[in-house]
Structure formats: C-alpha cells, structure tokens
Amino acid sequence: MIKRLHEVDGITLDFDSSIPCFLATCTGYLTSQDYRGFCEFGIKCVPEKVAEYGKVAWLTDLRKSEIFDDDDVKWTNEYWNIQINASGLQYLALVMSEDIFAAINIEHFIKEHERRKDPLIIELFADVDSAEAWCRKMLAL
Q1: Beta-carbon-side half-sphere exposure of residue 1 (alpha carbons within 13 Å)
Q2: Cα–Cα dist 38/12, whole Å
Q3: Which structural domain range is residue 100 located in?
Q4: Model-wide pTM > 0.70
Q5: Total tally of structural domains belonging to the chain
Q6: What separation in angstroms does the CA of 82 have from each of 89, 97, 136, 138?
Q7: What is the CATH number of the domain that holds 65?
Q8: What is the pLDDT of residues 32-56, one digit of tens each?
Q9: Residue 129, phi then psi, degrees to nearest 5
C-alpha cells in the first residue's frame, strides 16, 4: 500500500509498505529551499519507519527532474546522505533523469559519494521497476 507523506512544488514523498520503501518523485525544477526542506522532512520520517519495518529503502524517481543547483548536490553529499544514513537508512535507489543536464548532475553526485566512501549504498537505475526490485533484494539480505 502506498501512502502520501509529503508534497511540495515539484516533489512528492510516498511510502510503499509492500517493499518497504520511501518513494520520492521529482518533476521539473526545485528551488533550494523546497529541495532542502523536503530532504529534512525525509530524514525525520526514516526512524519511525525503521522502527516499524526493521529496514527500509529510499527510491528517488528523477526521470522528470531538471538540473539541481551545484550547492544542493554538494549539500546532499555532505549533509543529507550522512544524516539519512544515521537515521537508519542503508539503501538509496536513483532512477536517472531523462534531462541530459540533470543526468550529468546525478553522475557528479555519485562520483563524489564514491570518493567520500560514505556507508549509504546508492545504485542508479533506468526505470522504477528495476529500482524497486533492487530495494526488495537489498532489504531481504
């Protein structure tokens, strides 16, 4: 069952209890304020779901997203990834954007994440079905 948890212009956060997984869907351009506020909300949601399900994953569908501000990409790597992992999240699936510039943004994000060697496990996918299957597999470990 999917339940809507949060929504701001350009991004929604749902929870799919059948996986169990947070589902963030980005469409269009997000202001830094909306993006970071949304991310902060997500951090607060994770401990409750981890307490309920034991383990949860996070899937972000970026297919319809536009480019992210470089400062937001840096903030995500240096702050959000660390905080979301500390709150109990281990697995993050990203579905690549169809926008070439946003896809380049995401590739830079992944390269920096790998360089930092953060414990959050992140994988890229071309479609939501593959990302959901990976989340299920990782949570079953």
Answers
A1: 2
A2: 8
A3: 2-140
A4: yes
A5: 1
A6: 10, 23, 22, 19
A7: 3.30.750.24
A8: 999 999 999 999 999 999 999 999 9
A9: -60, -45
